[in-house]
Amino acid sequence: MATIIPLEQSRRKSADRALEVLTGLVADDVRAVNQLIIRRMESRVPLIPQLAGHIIAAGGKRLRPILTLAASKLCGYDGQRHLKLAACVEFIHTATLLHDDVVDASDLRRGGPSANALFGNEASVLVGDFLFSRAFELMVEDGSIDVLRILSNASAVIAEGEVLQLSTAHNSATSEQAYLEVVRAKTAELFAAACRIGAVVAGRPQAEEEALRTYGLNLGIAFQIVDDVLDYAAVQERLGKTVGDDLREGKMTLPVILAIHRGNEAERSFWRRVLDEADYRDGDLPHAQDLIRRYNTLRDAIDRARHYGAIARDALGLFPDSPVRQALLDIIDFTVEREF
Amino acid sequence: MATIIPLEQSRRKSADRALEVLTGLVADDVRAVNQLIIRRMESRVPLIPQLAGHIIAAGGKRLRPILTLAASKLCGYDGQRHLKLAACVEFIHTATLLHDDVVDASDLRRGGPSANALFGNEASVLVGDFLFSRAFELMVEDGSIDVLRILSNASAVIAEGEVLQLSTAHNSATSEQAYLEVVRAKTAELFAAACRIGAVVAGRPQAEEEALRTYGLNLGIAFQIVDDVLDYAAVQERLGKTVGDDLREGKMTLPVILAIHRGNEAERSFWRRVLDEADYRDGDLPHAQDLIRRYNTLRDAIDRARHYGAIARDALGLFPDSPVRQALLDIIDFTVEREF
Predict the structure, then answer these.
(1) Residue A209's closest CA among A66, A56, A77, A40?
(2) Exposed, middle or buried, B182 (CB in 10 Å: 0-12/13-18/19+)?
């Protein structure tokens, strides 16, 4: 049940290679940031680099710090400050991941060797705190109150978004608007801050700072919507996490919200049992996927994501054409059209 | 088995009333800080003030923010910056408490309605993150890079200390030195930062800043040692937590470390079973308390605490006599001699 999104052939190709191209454009910086990350997660307490290394090395695409590096390049910045700040963005992201994975006893059955499954809840929380504090130390070393304001604000909004998500979980009455508020807070704000910082270190005018913030925020919303689609649609091996996790955890994401709104009373009572009552049974995931397919909610969720992608695209109109600008545009397609 | 510490009568009296007197000396500031705390833990997500309120209101003595207020007064500061920074210190402390209480599934049996028992691990972690981020927002509003450096550094050291404590748990080979390093990092650094900030906002010379840091650090070490003593010695109702928690959780604290070092092989094998193997049985707490009594380790731990108290006392020698200086001195006795 992989999501296939029609895209003209040439745009499809650049979407596929977009992250590779963008990473290549800032390759030296990425190496420097990786070194910085490894150096700054060191500690006399061995458990810290062990656990942090598990999640940071296991690694991921480093999308957020790469956005900081690319935005700096787009703004013509040629100093060194963006390196520390990119590491800082990755530390905040990693801390959030670690804390996201902390679960209550009843949830301990989820699949996959997450950090908390390997090291325990306590260690995940505390190492997350360490990375978060380290992020602030890096910002303080940078010394700019503007950057500190942007990132401390983003951190507070992220935490608020995570709590909001917790409050909407297991509540099938969650609206699309409430979902969007969660997505904006827990995911998009860090994308926005990561991009905006590029203009700040380069000392660019307010309009460019705002444009990059708009780009990041809307890219981040699109990114999260697609992530939530993939939780129901992806090919297990490519996703790198268990398909159906969101359903099992009672998370209210767009594919489900739309299916509930479009469904009949019998279907809603199914959703209420699985989500509100957390009474998850064998066969519930395929049934949920059937309903999602019947109402085409994955396709429509991707359409919503495209809308935010379009806003992100227009925001970059302010900047003259350049390879990095093109790569940032292609990243939008990559984000919306990715299948993994 | 309450710890009775011999103290000359007059000093005993002032110790008892010390916190009351100190709080009274900065009463207006304490009120302002309490209001600030309530205002700044507000959020459009109701769970945040609910949970944060549970732990902040349930409240405690506000010892750390009061130290910031008192240190500012000691330094003759008459502005408003110390109020926000005191709130910030309390937020960091509260976030730490929330994260401390997050436990692994196997530990969920512990007594007492901690926040995580009432609201769940996830909520405790995320609201802790929110308070921590809010603390940084408050610092950024203050705008001083010096303050930001002190507190971001303290936060990283605290997190490191918490992980270090986790690494020493269930390890009966933990040395007194390793214990001291944990105590210094997880507890004393925030006391040190809280006090030091008073000199920073008042723009006092380096020597006074250092003196207040020394006072706070050593007061904090004494405070934690006594806390660890009380876990074996206190009268249950006064402690406000369950006597014996540390033993059940395999925490390596000074009373136990000294008893292990002074014990015979049979006793050590008892400690290894309870601590290293986490094989805790009925009757283990009374037996542990017997061993602790046999080797007088509570009294000796308190003696160690007094040593740090003496260092804290001398640090204040730099400041001219005043009611607030006297109250800060009495707080040392209060910390070391308290029975609750």
Answers:
(1) A77
(2) buried
> CB contact, 8 Å: B45 with chain A?
yes
CB contact A176 to B (< 8 Å): no
Q: How do residues B151-183 score in pLDDT, each as one tens digit?
A: 999 999 999 999 999 999 999 999 999 999 999
Q: Name which of A120, A137, A152 is nearest B156 (Cβ-Cβ).
A: A137
Check whether A240 has a pLDDT greater than 70. no
Quick check: A334 and A63 in contact, CB under 8 A?
no
pLDDT of residue A290 exceeding 50: yes
CA distance A149 to chain B (A): 6
CB contact under 8 A, A102 and B125: yes
Residue B112 amino acid letter: G
CA distance B40 to B60: 18
How many beta-carbon pairs under 8 angstroms link A with B? 145
Indicate if the pLDDT at residue A106 is higher than 80. Answer: no
Q: What is the three-class DSSP state of A133? A: helix
* CB pair distance less than 8 Å for B130 and A159: yes
Report all structural domains of chain A as residue ranges with CATH numbers, in order of start: 9-337 (1.10.600.10)
Put simply, the chain A residues between 287 and 316 with a CB less than 8 A from any chain B CB are none
pLDDT at B1: 42
Token pair listed for A201: 């270190």
Whether this model's ipTM surpasses 0.90 comes out as no
Radius of gyration of chain B (CA): 20
**CA distances from residue B324 to A15, A272, B15, B68, B328 in whole angstroms, order as listed:** 66, 60, 14, 12, 6
What region does B252 belong to: left with phi over 0, alpha with psi -120 to 50, or beta?
beta
Do the chains contact at B102 and A123, CB–CB below 8 Å? no
- Judging contacts by C-beta atoms under 8 Å, the chain B residues touching residue A98 are none
Q: Does B167 touch chain A (CB under 8 A)?
A: yes
pTM here? 0.89
In 3D space, the residue among B152, B125, B131 whose CA is nearest the CA of residue B40 turns out to be B131
DSSP B137-193: HHHHHHT-HHHHHHHHHHHHHHHHHHHHHHHHTT-TT--HHHHHHHHIIIIIHHHHH
Q: Does A21 touch chain B (CB under 8 A)?
A: no
Q: What is the pLDDT of residue B140?
A: 96
- Residue B156 makes CB contacts below 8 A (sequence gap 6+) with A130, A133, A134, A136, A137
Name chain B contacts of A184, Cβ cutoff 8 Å: none
- How far is CA B258 from each of CA A127, B226, B274, B304, rounded to the nearest angstrom? 29, 14, 16, 11
Q: Report whether pLDDT(B184) > 90.
A: yes
Q: Taking CB atoms and an 8 Å limit, are A103 and B121 in contact across chains?
A: yes
Which of B105, B125, B156 lies closest to A130 in CB terms?
A: B156
Give dist(CA B241, CA B255) in Å, integer: 18
- CB pair distance less than 8 Å for B162 and A129: yes
More confident residue, B3 or A144: A144
Comparison of pLDDT for A237 and B161, the residue scoring more? B161
Q: What is the pLDDT of residues B207-266, one digit of tens each?
A: 999 999 999 999 999 999 999 999 998 665 555 556 888 999 999 999 999 999 999 999
- Separation in Å, CA of B103 to nearest CA in chain A: 6
On chain A, the residues whose CB falls within 8 A of the CB of B105 are: 105, 108, 121
pLDDT digits (tens, 9 = 90+) for B31-83: 999 999 999 999 989 999 988 888 777 657 899 999 999 999 999 999 999 99
